[in-house]
Write a structure and sequence with these properties.
The complex is a heterodimer of chains A (about 260) and B (about 600).
Chain A: H1 3-9, E1 15-27, E2 30-41, E3 45-49, H2 56-64, E4 71-76, E5 79-83, E6 98-101, H3 113-118, H4 126-139, H5 155-167, E7 173-177, H6 185-202, E8 205-210, H7 213-219, E9 222-227, E10 230-235, H8 255-263
Helix pairs in contact in A: 4-5, 5-6, 7-8
Chain B: H1 14-31, H2 35-47, H3 49-56, H4 65-72, H5 74-105, E1 106-107, H6 111-117, H7 126-137, H8 142-151, H9 166-191, H10 194-202, H11 207-236, H12 239-243, H13 249-260, H14 263-294, E2 306-307, H15 310-342, H16 345-383, H17 386-397, H18 403-432, H19 436-441, H20 455-479, H21 483-491, H22 496-507, H23 509-525, H24 528-533, H25 541-550, H26 558-580
Parallel strand pairs in B: 1-2
Helix pairs in contact in B: 2-16, 2-17, 3-14, 3-18, 5-6, 5-9, 5-11, 5-15, 6-15, 7-9, 7-15, 9-11, 9-15, 10-11, 11-14, 13-14, 13-18, 14-18, 15-26, 16-17, 16-20, 16-23, 16-26, 17-20, 18-20, 20-23, 23-26, 25-26
Classes of the chains: A alpha/beta (about 260), B mainly alpha (about 600).
Chain lengths: ~260, ~600
Amino acid sequence: MTAAADSVHNETAKLLAEVCGLGFAYVRGVEVVCDLDLKLYAGKVHCLLGDSGCGKSTLLRLIAGLERPTKGTIQIDGETVSCADRSVRHCKPERRAVGFVFQDYALFPHLSVLRNVMFGMRGKPKTERRAAAAELLDRVGLADYASKMPHTLSGGQQQRVALARALGRNPKLMLLDEPFTGLDTTLREEIRGVTLRVLRESGVATLMVTHDPAEALLVADYVSVMRQGRLILDGLPEDVCTLEPRDKGPAVVRLKPAVDKASK
Amino acid sequence: MLKTPAPIPETNDPLADGAASQRRLRFFRVGLPSPWTLLCLVISVVVALPVLVVLYSLTQDSQGDWAHLAETRLPGYLKNTAIIAVSVCAICAVVGTTTAWLVTTCDFPGRRLLAWALILPLAVPAYLAAYAYTDLLQFAGPVQAWLRDTYGWGRGDYWFPDLRTRAGAIVILSATLYPYVYLAARTAFVEQSANAMEAARTLGRGPWHAFLTVALPLARPSIAAGTALVLMETLADFGAVDYCAVDTLATGVYHTWRSLENPTAAAQLASMLLGIVVLAIAIETIARRRARHHQLSTRLQRVKRQRLGLFGSLAAFAVCALPILAGFALPAGVFLHMAITTGDDRAWEVAVDHGRNSLMLASIACIAAMILAVLVAYAHRLSRGPVTALAARLAGTGYALPGTVLGLGLLIPLTWMDFKIYELTEALSDKWGIDLFAYVYGKEPETYLILSGTVFAVLLGYQTRFLGVALAMIQSAFGRVKPSLDDAARTLGASRAWVVLRVHVPMLSVSIFAAGLLVFVDVVKELPATLMLRPFNFETLAVRTYQMASDERLETASFSALLIIAIGLIPVIVLTFLLSDRRRDKPDH
């Protein structure tokens, strides 16, 4: 991670997750994620920007524990949860304090909205879980929809249910995989506002994947740009478009109009 | 301002170390698969045991019986099998496609009812149809008796078709098996875009020409897949051809085993049948793969049905009603008539008694198949590796196994194991004076058989034969659940087993139930494997009907036959109801 990031975050926020030298290949020899370093801080939103197929989603799956890295380590809250070294125990996804909002929301179609949110809460009495889920739904503005089935909700509502469900486990880290792509423009801004406000309030470290530069520059506390499995740029949103990419590839030209749009 | 990531110190490099140890451990990963993969592998090997045994028999010596068979009976077996298979497939393809086309694209009175009723022959196993037809059309039967009475003919004055011939077997098998083609073709025609047909019409093709050049080629892979199923069922049929006194490979296996008492020669004959069946599966798989390419967009315009005139309506009605009459109404009517006229209370009691046996076997087999199929399908979903793919394929092969081959393939290893167990207990009692059998069974054991000739053997046989049915349905249902749902559940704190119980099973409950139902009905109808594997004096509905029909005392078994048909009707009715409302299975909203 860069000195810039450290200087921005260190005084104010707690380091929650650290990714070191991470590499991953589905097929041996073809690395989808390559020598990647990342730090995530409590209450901050880190945007990961990149074209489709550059390995963004794979990175999220690695952090969530759904895949095992072939190189490097991932630490969450000081504890090593993933390590390429097989002698280090791999922390299963169900044991990590990580929330994941999927691009297609992945709501369980056979459970009501309330039961979807309750799914992740275990080990507490049912009445408590019910109350906690209802409160979360209230926070995302869906208190009236508790008994509805997911398929009766609109896209934006489904997205907020997915968020509430992911928050139900009290995660330290929230992973958002292009959470706003399916929504139309006006709705998008509103939902984005709600989501990020709730996340910042909860003190959760957020890693958000997007392919929309304007969105990244608008909402992020810190931006990283990914290309072919590597981070080629990172910095504060206001700086990132002036920097040279590290991989000596074409400059990230497309960022320029996005910045103009964002600054308006 | 921007700095490259801080280099990790060369000494004590944790990453290099990790890579090295991973290389070391890769070998172990092959050696020690995950518990799910292991479980899947064990299930499929046990279930596929008969297939492996039959294939193994090829390396054994049959002491000259094979040569004897090849000289005497084999050419006849092959000829009969080939003629019956080709004819039945051809008739089923034509009948199934024609009726499917009529009910999907034409409108005539009674269309909806006929569209549903065309599946009904699935409830009638071919052997029951054979018994019913023979009873109806034999010399002493009601039809010939009526002809003689009406026209005053005597024996030999007239020609009447004899059903206990190869042609009779072909007619009977076609009448009961065509619904496989009908179902496949109807689905294909319904899913076809009406646009393609309409485009053909605007390009100057008449309706008939458009059907031949557009609709039929589009549906051809599905029709081929349905016909392949017919081929498999025809090759596997034992009861109907046996009753028609036609020797095919399937009956040959049974008779070689019974009369020559040479399981090796029988197994070698069986492997020949297995080879043909594998060919049928290959055709089916390839056809299905092509069918996938032919599927157009998901949002399709419904085919607009063409209203038929009076003559057309009558013709269409007759064409659709005839197969139902032949495959369902006549056989069921014959048994119903028999049951009413015999009016024997004892017969009903006996049937209920055997029904209880059938019910017990079918319930256990169906629950076991549902659980095993979910386990195998989930293990396959989890790893997606070649091992589980192979295991899932292996677990499904038994479906293609004709019942006689299956019975033999299971009897050989089970008898061998029983023999080994007996040897072991003998050795034990010789050395240490421990008589294990006396210990378990009491002083005088009735039998020294533990595995073969027990209900366990029958149940194992059913899993071999029908796990594939359940597996195919449940696997395709699993395929409709988005992978992100599994991931979501995992990140929400659910373990793998918990994901199955809380997400997959409730989501797929309809499909799992439907799969169990199919297994249940198939078990009730199954004849040859039960006949070969059952314990002494243990009778099911199917076995009882077979025995009574062989003894020319069909009336006594009419209640059993009716019960089989009635049970067979359950899935036809329930499945049409359930599968028409697949909302709950749909992962997308």
